[in-house]
Every structure is written in C-alpha cells, then in structure tokens.
Amino acid sequence: MVGACRMGRGAVLTLLLCLFCLLPSTRPQTKIPLETVKSWADAFGGELYSIVTKYSGSLLLQKKYKDVEPTLKIKEVDGLELVKKFSEQMESMLRRKVEAVERLVEAAEDADLNHEYNSSLEFDYYNSLLINEKDENDNYVELGDEFILEPNEHFNNLLVNTTYSDIQLPTNVYNKDPDILNGVYMSEALNPIFVDNFERDPTLTWQYFGSSTGFFRLYPGIKWLPDENGVISFDCRNRGWYIQAATSPKDIVIIVDVSGSMKGLRMTIAKHTIVTILDTLGENDFVNIIAYNDYVHFIEPCFKGILVQADRDNREHFKQLVDELQAKGVGTVNKALTESFKILREFRDAGQGGLCNQAIMLITDGAVEDYEAVFEKYNWPDRKVRVFTYLIGREVTFAPNVKWIACNNKGYYTQISTLADVQENVMEYLHVLSRPMVINHDHDIIWTEAYMDSALPQSEELFASQAQSLLLMTTVAMPVFSKKNETRSHGILLGVVGSDVPLRELLKLAPRYKLGVHGYAFLNTNNGYILSHPDLRPLYKEGKKLKPKPNYNSVDLSEVEWEDQDEILRTAMINGETGYLSMDVKVPVDKGKRVLFLTNDYFFTDISGTPFSLGVVLSRGHGEYILLGNTSVEEGLHDLLQPDLSLANEWIYCITDIDPDHRKLSQLQAVIRFLTGEEPDLECDEELVQEVLFDAVVTAPMEAYWTTLALNMSLETEAGVEMAFLGTRAGLMRSALYVGSEKLSNRKFLTRKDKESIFTMDHFPLWYRRAAEHPPGSFIYSIVSEDDAEGGGLPKVVTVSTAVAVSVDGKMGIAAAVGVQIKLELLQRKFWAAMQQPNDTDCSALDGACPLSCQDEVLNCFLIDNNGFILISKRPAETGKFLGAVDGSVMTQLLNMGMFKKVTMYDYQAMCKIPYHHHSGARPLLSPIYAFLAAVKWLISDFLIFLLEFNMSSFWHADNLADAKAVFHHSHKHKKHDTLQPCDTEYPVFVYEPAIKETNGLIECGDCQKMFVAQQIASSNLLLLVTDAACDCSIFPPVLLDAKEVKYNASVKCDRMRSQKLRRRPDTCHAFHPEENAQDCGGAAELCASLTLLLLPLALLLR
C-alpha cells in the first residue's frame, strides 16, 4: 500500500507543470511614464491658456479694472437693513392692491343695497364665451355683441379690453337664469371702479368679482375659450381665493357610507361629492375621511385618530384613496359619528388644527338608527360642531331623518340625485360657514398661497417662456355681503372680490444687482410653504407638454432649503421674526450635474399686513460686497451706445411696464432715453444706472480689441474660436463674433432661448456663477452633457470663462466675468497634437513605453472637467458623458484616492415613474362569449348611467348638454401605462479636489493590472487622464449619476405623513353668531318621476 503512494520524479514535474498552466496568467501592465503625462498636460494647458486669454481679452479686462481700483469703493451690504427695506416696499405695494379691492367691495355692496330683485328682468351683457360670435346671417349672437380686444403687454400679450369687464359662466350655469341676470345687472357698477383702480395703480393685473350664484366678472374683459370637449369647467366658487375669503379655517371630518346599498351610481356620486368637498379646502384647513359599513375605517389607516392639513399633497392622496372605495355590507353610522366627534374634540382641546370652524360631512343614502344619543353626548347643547348631510340618490324615505341631523346641529341638508347636482349642493356648506362673518360684517382680507392660473388662455405658452418660479401668483380677496336689514340674520354672501398679484412683480422690489452673484430673495407663507424661490420648480414635462406638479404649491421651505435640518430658519420665518442665520450650503447648478459650496447668510423679516415672510440670501465673501464706481454721464453714455453692448432685459433699470408709451422700449433704450433727457417721465434706479455707466466705460476698450483680433485671425491655426463675451455685476453684457452668425455652432447662447447663459431675475449666468467660485485668472471649461446637446446630437462647443476681481482695502469683489466659446473640434485638434512624443525622443531616462502617443492602441486618453464629465475621448460618442459611466474602475480608484469626492444631494420636488397596474383579472380570457357579454353589459349600463348623470329633465338647455358631454368624456379617459407622481430622490455629484495636482495608480482587474495617471491642467478646471487600454477592468461596475427614489418604510412614511409641522394660524376666526338663523338648514330636493328613475334599478343591476 505504501508503494502505491510513490510517484516517479518525472510524473511530479508533469503534474506541477499542469497545475501552473491552470493558474491565471497576469499580463504585464502598460507602464505610463509620469513625466511624459505631465509634459503633455503642461504643453496642452499652456497652448489652451494662450488661446483663451488672447481671444477673451481677459488680461486686458483685468488690467482695465485694476487701473480704476483707486477710484472704486467696495461697500459691505447690511443684510438686515436690506431685507427690512425690501419688506417695507413690498408691504406698500401690496397695500395698494388691498385698497383697490376695498373700493370694489364698497361699490358692490352699495349696488346690491340699491338694487331690487326682479324675477322677470331682461338684460343683455357681454358673455365672455359668446362675444364677437356671429350666426349664419352674419349677425352677432345673443349676449355676443362686438367687444373690442387688443393685445396688451401688461397682461402677457393676451387680447383684452381695458374699458369693460365681461362675464364668464361655467357650462352648467344657465346664462339667462333670473339670479344670474340680477347679479350681473347689479355688478355692472363695478366697471368704472375697475378702470379707476387700474388708472390709480397701473401695476394692477386682473381684477374680478366672483358671485355666489356662479358668474365671474373679469377685468379687463377677455374672450374665454372652452376646452377640447366644448366645456367651460372654470367655476370661480371652486377657487382657493373664493373659498378662503368666504369662510374661516375649518376642521372637517367627512363620513361616507360604503354599505351595499351605495353600489353603482350612488357610489359614483358619493365619490364625486367627497372630491368636490376636498376641492373647497385649503392649507389653513384640516381634514380626515372615515368610511363606514359594518365597521368604521379611516380610508388612510396612517391618519387614524387625527386630522391632517388639507394641503394639495394630502388632498390628492385622499382623492386616490376615495377612488378605490367599494360598497359592501350594512351601514351603521353611530360609530362613525362617535369617532368623528372624538377626533374633533381632541384636536380642539389640544389646541391643534384650525381652531375655528369644526364640521362633519355625512354622505349617505339613508339613516335609520337612533343617533340622538351621540349628539347629546358629544355636541349638545353647545353645538360646537356643525353637521352637514348629503342624501345620495332619488330615494326620499330617509330624507326627514337625514335633514333632522343637519337642522339640529347648525348644519345644512341637501339631496344629490345626479353628478350634475354635486357642485351646487356642496357649495351650500360654504354659505352656512360664512354666515357669522356676514352678519358681523367682518371684511377680512385674505392672501392665498402661490398658484398658477391655467384657466386663462395661452397658459402653456407662458409656462414655456418664463422662469418657473416666477410663473406663480397670489390673490388678495375680500368677501362681499348683503347689507339689507331684512336678510341680516340669513347672512347672505353675495360673492368675493379679488385681484391677482404676480410674484414676479413683488420680486422686482428686491433688485438682483444688490444680492451679488449667488444671492436671491424668497417668500414663504404662514404655513411654511414656498411662495417664491429660485429653486422652486412647479412644472414638469409630460411628453412634450409642461404641466403643474400635483403638489407645486405645497413645497415646504425645508424641502428647498434642506440644509436647514433643525428648521431654525423655517421656525423663525413662520413666527414672523426678524433676524439672521448663517449656513454652509451645497447649491446645485447646471440641472443638478454640478454643485457650488457656499456659506450663505440668511436675513429675514415678515411683510406686515400679510401672512408672508421675506428672506434675502447673500453668499459670504464677494457676495456681500457692492462695487461703487464713478464716471460722468457724457463719457458713459458714449460707451453705452456701442453696438456690442446689451443690458439684462429682465432687470429693472427703468420702469417700462406702466406707461404704454414705454412698454416697447428695451431696458437699454430706456436707460439711454433717461440719460439723454428724451423721456423725463421715466423712473429709473439711479444707483444701478451709475454702475452700468461705470462698467460701460471700463469695458469699452474690449470692443476695439475683439474687432482687431477678428480682422487678423489665422484661419489655419485658430479656426474654431467663435465668440468672445463678458458680463458685469450690473447686468451689462458685451459680445463679439469671430465667425459669421450663420456659422455659430450654438446660436441659442446669450439669447432668451438659453436662460442659463444670460442675466435673469432669478440668477446670474451659469458661466459667471461658476467662474466666480474659481481663482481669478483660472478658466472654467464647460461642455453641455450628452442629455442637453442641441438636437440630441453630440456636444459641439465648449464655453470658457474666468472671473475678474478687484481689491480695495483688503476687500475682494467680483467685477465681471469674461470668456470665449470655442468649437470642441479646436480643443480636440490641440489635444491630440500635444498628446504624443516625437519619434526621435530620447527615451534613455524614461521608465516605461517610449516614444508614447495617445493614439497608441494600448492607451486611452481623456480630457475631463472638475465634475468628471468627458470633453475629449478617442471615442466621440463618449463626449459629454460622465467618466464613471464609461470607466467605473478608474472613477472608483480616483474616489478612493481622494482626487474626487462624492457629494450626495437631495431633491424633494422630483417626479418619479409609477408603473400602472391593470386591475382587471383574467376572466375575459375564459371564453369569447364572456368577453362579448361583458361588452354588452358595459355598453348598456354605462349608457344608462350616462342618462342618469345627465339629468334628462333639463335636456333642453344646450349648456347642460355640453356639461354632460364633459362628464362622459372625463369618465372614459384612458389612463397611461406609466404615470409620474411627486417623490423624494437622492443623487450623487462628483467634485474634483484641486489640492491634489496629480495622482497615479494600479488597479487590480483579475488577470491584469491597469495603470492610470491623472494630471491637473494648470489655470483650468480640467484634468488629463491617461489609462491602460489593453487591461479589461469590466469587473468594476460603472459609477452612475442616476437619481434614486428615497423609499421610506411603512412606519417612517406614516410618521412623515402624520407629522404636523409648525405653522402660524390666520389672525381671525368667525365660527358662530348669536343672530344666525340656524333653521335655514336646507329642504327637500325636487322630485319628478322620469324615464331615468325607472331605468335606475336596471342600471344598478347591470353594474
């Protein structure tokens, strides 16, 4: 046996040789000499610096500013003084809007007092849908007389009539109804007040009166267009400004019956009723929804036992849950009522919620229990909670019971038989809640949260043309009451008067030039929601269309200024404090692909007389200095007239939008006319105009310099330099073309089509902002990423810029930025020429491959920027891509070595794709016969439901026909397979650490080692990266920039949804009044036997 273990020496050697062959072989790596890479980087960097300094004229501009340093003053900005001054100016402006609204309220109430109701009144008025419409005989249709419309810049170039208002009515409101005719006739008295208000304050925009009967008087008059279904769905009584002005804050619990008897049409009407109630709530209100049958359940289990703020987020969430409700079981309302009263009492006792009106909305098709004991225990005798009841369906058996509940709890009862009835019946509760305020004649002034009005024509064009954060507006509104003594106890609300205030107009009072390169102003509400902020993005793209996000006006301050993790800033601003706070912040730029690290100083105060607070942000360092230069008007005016000069047209050098004669002037034209005395009436910002004059003089030599260069350009060596440009802190820009305009690679640059490249109300140009955060004299090279390249192709141009700094008494300020735009092709030509050693190179002293060239197959050479984006690669398709996506191994190593660092950023305004799941099962696949029967059942039942929804008794009104058509179309819209909905995301940004000038290393890639060398290119934000191309390192995953949705587990998600952030309640509350007529609590609905009623059982059976 021992002998069997022995092996011959030859066999052992053979075995060892075989085992050695099985081991992985390690390929010797390509050795890249460090000295060679450094010499390449130096040579390329030197040539690049020579080109960009020559063609930008940066050294000349720096010298010109250096020459005037002795005459310059640098003043430190007092942030607190600045924010107080802006706040006072905003308060003054908003006060003028309030005065305009007060004049309208007084005129409307006086007109009503002097008007006697006439049920047979005949009266023609300008109907905004019918104006200028003619019949087949070329005669104007009834209510559609000639109404002159002209485009007006002050109203976004819409066609308007500034002499008269006109009347808009929703499709479901009959335009000859006696109540409508009397209201329209009475409100004609507002026309002269509208015109007078506009003459007194030409900054006023839309003024209007929304009537409680449903008509909307709008000034200036416009032509109103129906939607694609021929329907006008806009109802002023649904708008936030109307509801907030008509009622005080509300805590509401909606109770809905989901027992078996509610199946079919009744459930559809009940759901529509809930959604309509939700639409009447705003961010000062609190709500919850309870569904009941055999047991009671909160439709959002996470909200069990509490009320949540009725902001847009929560309302939309409730609507989705309501849509999923199903009817089954037996209804017992007592438990649901008990639960509701408990929640309302607990919130009231804890000082939570609205602390004003409290109400329960009961939606049911009948109530048979003995519920009196519940009211005795929880609501009588004080009746602190009003109960509103909605009887669903045509059945009248339970009507007395359901009405009794409302009438004995200071509420209101209505019966809803069709979908068309929902709107009017839900509105009744608002009239009841408004009674105490009306009886007391308390004219509370309300200001709404930010919103964008997509009801007006051309809204889509506006979405595309303006900065997103400046599209929004707020409304100031006041209720209009009947002053007639005989109806005092009924508390009759006639309507609401309002006027829009575009937030753009408010922010004009915080001039951009006073806030520095990175500074900005922002506004937020008493609830902590953003009113205006440059980082607010209210729109998203669905296909090619821009649409408002579902939660666009409930973005919290803490979701935009997310570095304020302890919410110190948010708390102080909500409390209306005046103060100061400093924070280190990471500011995303270039659509989140890059980041600036700043220390920001936040200065804040409240705006008196409003629920708003104002914040002003100045970045520490150069951001807190203002440069003051001095020059004569004559000298400055001469240089302002040079053809290469322009001014930021969104900045306010002179006020041009008030006087119609000035509206056609550009800001530059206005400044010139102001300085020459041609327009003595022009009101201009003299400090800013003085800065412009100074910059015009200092930068004037650039025009002659650029022109000389253009005339003497060498097309062979420097073909590809396309444009030179500069911008100063006063919004002045100069530019010169080195090629014909038709040959420009990027024609959008420095135009309104490329907002990031120009001075706007929101920001300085991106090339200016990035240059300001790099050492003066160091150039920033920027290439558009592959996603943003024009026409979807590869990037073609590189934008290069550098900051020009001035120093006075140890303070450094950024006076300007200057740069060139060059073709990528020129950069590539210079790059590949520099990245090779001549064949006669002395290689004796070099360790590694020699002579070496980036064109060699064994090498990959990249030119990357300080955020890791590729400007040059052997493979053109990689241009504009992130290095980590192309070579994960090298990017991972650069991160490990500290040459790049990963910065995690958050986006709390993101939109994520939610896959659409079909609810239908597989039954239709069982047999063709089933599929056919299902189709027949759908056809018959839906047709019958359509007849019922439509309410045939009013068929002869064509308006109602259109309304029914809209309902039918709406209910049959096909859902898309993927929908977008608001979410939170986190995403990485990678940033180069400039202290590390060079690095190299070996990457273990399994069977080979990959060498790489990275070398900084002097006076730039660029790096030369040379890697071994032969070693396959695909075992390393790519490093990607993809944003990931932040997924919260059920517990965390629920905690976030339940959390009640700090808010400041409105100052006034009108819950009850002793003179209120509580017996005015609704009545029986009209009953009429009809074909539709007879068809109801069949329809429900088929359902």
From TrEMBL:
Glycoprotein listed as a keyword: yes
Keywords: Calcium, Calcium channel, Calcium transport, Disulfide bond, Glycoprotein, Ion channel, Ion transport, Membrane, Metal-binding, Signal, Transmembrane, Transmembrane helix, Transport, Voltage-gated channel
A GO molecular-function annotation: voltage-gated calcium channel activity
Pfam families per record: VGCC_alpha2, VWA_3, VWA_N
Topology of this chain in the membrane: Single-pass type I membrane protein
Signal sequence region: 1-28
Subcellular location: Membrane
Ranges for domain VWFA: 251-433
One GO cellular component, as annotated: voltage-gated calcium channel complex
Broad class of the protein's primary localization: membrane
Keyword Cell membrane: no
Domain of life: Eukaryota
PANTHER family found in the cross-reference section: VOLTAGE-DEPENDENT CALCIUM CHANNEL SUBUNIT ALPHA-2/DELTA-RELATED, VOLTAGE-DEPENDENT CALCIUM CHANNEL SUBUNIT ALPHA-2_DELTA-4
Family recorded in the similarity comment: Belongs to the calcium channel subunit alpha-2/delta family.
The protein's name: Calcium voltage-gated channel auxiliary subunit alpha2delta 4
Source taxonomy: Eukaryota, Metazoa, Chordata, Craniata, Vertebrata
